[in-house]
Every structure is written in structure tokens, then in C-alpha cells.
UniProtKB/TrEMBL annotation:
It catalyses: L-aspartate + 2-oxoglutarate = oxaloacetate + L-glutamate. Residues 30-395 form the Aminotransferase class I/classII large domain. Belongs to the class-I pyridoxal-phosphate-dependent aminotransferase family. In eukaryotes there are cytoplasmic, mitochondrial and chloroplastic isozymes. The keyword Metal-binding does not apply. Gene3D superfamilies: Aspartate Aminotransferase, domain 1, Type I PLP-dependent aspartate aminotransferase-like (Major domain). This is Aspartate aminotransferase. It comes from Urochloa decumbens. Its EC number is 2.6.1.1. PROSITE patterns: AA_TRANSFER_CLASS_1. The keyword Transferase applies. It comes from the Eukaryota. Homodimer.
């Protein structure tokens, strides 16, 4: 028998497991609202035209070779990524206070940032929102940080528990790292208002807390790259320090290319030393990052015409999602489905946190072949004009 005979079967990832179950369902009418990826109105994955164009340019360029990138990745990509999130005129960039390294999408950026902090930052506690992307506690726990949560989502209002958030951050250790979703909080779709962000900023700075922003949806939430970076830029503008994890999975549709960036915004005199230590985190982990994805991103970001084309395609994705919110809300209203569904309109980004219980989720899977995570999160990007009425019928049946 195998030397691995004693190994237990590991549970399926709770998010990716939804798609596994969906794929096993033979019913042709099945609907998958579990995937965190954009789908067209026809239910198909989308490669942006501007991405196809950039790839063609790269293929046609005979000077391109397949040599290794440096440990920190493509320099041009790193520069452009910092500019994209912090803003073209960011004083932090001008003052050379930002170090950026290319990482394996958002997840890799969080992991590298987490390990760097576990080695070099004096307070190992990271506070994450109570309910957050399911991978956060695992990524930071394995990176060597102590994970603790702060209240965030209020099931009663299906909105932000701002009072709870303030209380919990106030009682967390001085200097704690605080994970913040830059926009379009996953899974709740609930973001602080600008006024609340300002209060969070003041509270955190007064307690010398270190912000760690996770930006997986810049431009994908509102349709505007600048608007979705407002929270981050408030924290950069005060001159204080922060970490920033960026992903191009959603906003450029580069999911499987695994392209992202980690920035550390500190002071000019530490930047070079910080970068040297980030290299020591990365080198034994995967040596150096991939070449294709960041080359696409850099090609688009450095060319104003391609950049503009990207913003138009990005806004079209965001607008389709926003219109799905309105259509679902209207469909429930017209059915007279009991309950207040206004949170479907108020929440932002790829997901709606419906408030459906795990029993109701199971009922909808059983009776309607509609798949979502057991916490009642549905991907608005997976809906279409054709499937909204089916989902509305299912929700109506589940709650009545
Ligand atoms: N952070 C949040 C909040 C996310 O929702 C996701 C993806 O779903 C990620 C990070 C990481 O995504 P990726 O590693 O594909 O960039």
C-alpha cells in the first residue's frame, strides 16, 4: 500500500467547490452564480478586445524573448501599477516612497506582503473584516501573522456595522495591521462611505495601525478606476505608510495569467531596503514571476489610446453588472417577494450578499439547479437578462 495511505480526504474549497458541484449537475437549465469571474450576457467568459490586441502586438514583436524576469518582476509593469492605484500625480510616487513588486495576482501579493510583515513588522496581529474573502484568514495565518477579526457586516441592515467596526479597531492592539478591501467588499458588496473612510483613517492613524489594502476590483465596481481607488488615495495622501495588493484578474479579465502587484508605501530612505527583503521572501517561494501577463498590462497602460479602450471595456462590464442589480430588484418587486431587497441595489461590485440562509440556498440548488455559496452570495456577473427571472422565481419560492 502507498506511503500516503493514511492521508485523509481534504474538504473542497468552499468557493471553488460550488463550481465542482455545478459541473456534476446533469440538468441543462442549471445556473452557476458561484464563480467570481465575469460572464457576458450569453454566459460566456470574456477576453477584452484591448487584451487581444496587446497580445497580438507582443506576438508580432520579434525582439521579444522568454528570458526570466528579475525576482521583482517587470519594472515597467511595477511602475505603471503603482501609478494606476495611487494616481498619476501621487506625491508618494514622486517622493520615491513606493516600492512595487510583481506578484502572482492578488493572492500572491497578499501572501508576499503577509510574509514580509511577519518577518519585519513589530506587531504580528492582522485584523480582517468579519466576513471577508474566505482565503484571507488562511493566507495571513500561513504567512505567520495572528489573525483577528473586526465587525464589518450587519445582517440586520445588510449594510455596514460601522459602530462595531470602530469599537473593534479601537480595542485592537496599537500598531495592528488592518486589512481593508479598497472597494467592492467581497463577499458582502458593502463599502464604507467616503465620510466613514475618513473616520476609519483617523482612527487607524491615531493608533499607529498599518493599513493593508486589497484591491481586486479597481474600476470593476463603479466603472471608474479613480473612484474605486478613492479609499486608498485618502490613506496615501496623509503621508502615512501602507501595503497595497493589486489584482488584474477582474478589471483586465486576466484571471488565469496570475498578474498582480504588491506595493509598500513607506519612506524614501527605507524603500531600497524593503525591496531587498521582499526579494528574500519571493526567491525561495517561486523564484521569479511570469512574463506574459504583466507584458499585456504594461502594453495597455503605457499607451494612452489602448488605456482609453480598456476603460471603455471595463465600464461596459461594470455597467452590465449594475444593470443586473436593477433587473433582479425589479423582478422581485414585481413578484411581490416578501422582504426588503433594496440592498441588491445598494451593494456594489461583483457580488450580492442576498441574506438567504444556507437552507434556502440548498433549496434553490435542489429545486432550481441554481448554484451559489452557502452564505447566500451570488455573482451578479454570472446573471443575464434571461436568467434573472429564473433566479427571482427561485428566491421567491425559497422565502415564501
Ligand atoms: N481579494 C479579494 C477580495 C478577492 O475577491 C479576490 C478574488 O476573488 C482576490 C483577492 C484574489 O484574486 P486573484 O488572486 O485571482 O487576483
Amino acid at each position: 500500500s502507498s506511503v500516503f495511505a493514511g492521508i485523509a480526504q481534504a474538504p473542497e474549497d468552499p468557493i471553488l467547490g460550488v463550481t465542482v458541484a455545478y459541473n456534476k449537475d446533469p440538468n441543462p437549465a442549471k445556473i452557476n452564480l458561484g464563480v467570481g469571474a465575469y460572464r457576458t450576457e450569453e454566459g460566456k467568459p470574456l477576453v477584452l478586445n484591448v487584451v487581444r490586441r496587446a497580445e497580438q502586438m507582443l506576438i508580432n514583436d520579434p525582439s521579444r524573448v522568454k528570458e526570466y524576469l528579475p525576482i521583482v518582476g517587470l519594472a515597467e509593469f511595477n511602475k505603471l501599477s503603482a501609478k494606476l492605484i495611487f494616481g498619476a500625480d501621487s506625491p508618494a510616487i514622486k517622493e520615491n516612497r513606493v516600492v512595487t513588486v510583481q506578484c502572482l495576482s492578488g493572492t500572491g501579493s497578499l501572501r508576499v506582503g503577509g510574509e514580509f510583515l511577519a518577518r519585519h513588522y513589530h506587531e504580528r496581529t492582522i485584523c480582517i473584516p468579519a466576513t471577508t474573502w474566505g482565503n484571507h484568514p488562511k493566507v495571513f495565518g500561513l504567512a505567520g501573522l495572528t489573525v483577528r477579526s473586526y465587525r464589518y457586516y450587519d445582517p440586520a441592515t445588510r449594510g455596514l456595522d460601522f459602530k462595531g467596526l470602530v469599537e473593534d479597531l479601537s480595542s485592537a492592539p496599537v500598531g495592528s495591521i488592518v486589512l481593508l478591501h479598497a472597494c467592492a467588499h467581497n463577499p458582502t458588496g458593502v463599502d464604507p462611505t467616503i465620510d466613514q473612510w475618513e473616520q476609519i483613517r483617523q482612527l487607524m492613524r491615531s493608533k499607529s495601525m498599518l493599513p493593508f489594502f486589497d484591491s481586486a476590483y479597481q474600476g470593476f465596481a463603479s466603472g471608474s478606476l479613480d473612484k474605486d481607488a478613492e479609499s486608498v488615495r485618502m490613506f496615501v495622501a496623509d503621508g502615512g505608510e501602507l501595503l497595497m495588493a493589486q489584482s488584474y484578474a477582474k478589471n483586465m479579465g486576466l484571471y488565469g495569467e496570475r498578474v498582480g502587484a504588491l506595493s509598500v508605501c513607506g519612506s524614501a530612505d527605507v524603500a531600497v531596503r524593503v525591496e531587498s527583503q521582499l526579494k528574500l521572501v519571493i526567491r525561495p517561494m517561486y523564484s521569479s514571476p511570469p512574463l506574459h501577463g504583466p507584458s499585456i498590462v504594461a502594453t495597455i497602460l503605457k499607451d494612452s489610446e489602448m488605456y482609453n479602450e480598456w476603460t471603455v471595456e471595463l465600464k461596459a462590464m461594470a455597467d452590465r453588472i449594475i444593470s443586473m442589480r436593477q433587473q433582479l430588484f425589479d423582478a422581485l418587486k414585481s413578484r411581490g417577494t416578501p422582504g426588503d431587497w433594496s440592498h441588491i441595489l445598494k451593494q456594489i461590485g461583483m457580488f450580492t450578499f442576498t441574506g438567504l440562509s444556507s437552507e434556502q440556498v440548498a433549496f434553490m440548488r435542489q429545486e432550481y439547479h441554481i448554484y451559489m455559496t452557502s452564505d447566500g452570495r451570488i455573482s451578479m456577473a454570472g446573471l443575464s437578462t434571461k436568467t434573472v427571472p429564473i433566479l427571482a422565481d427561485a428566491i421567491h419560492a425559497a422565502v415564501t
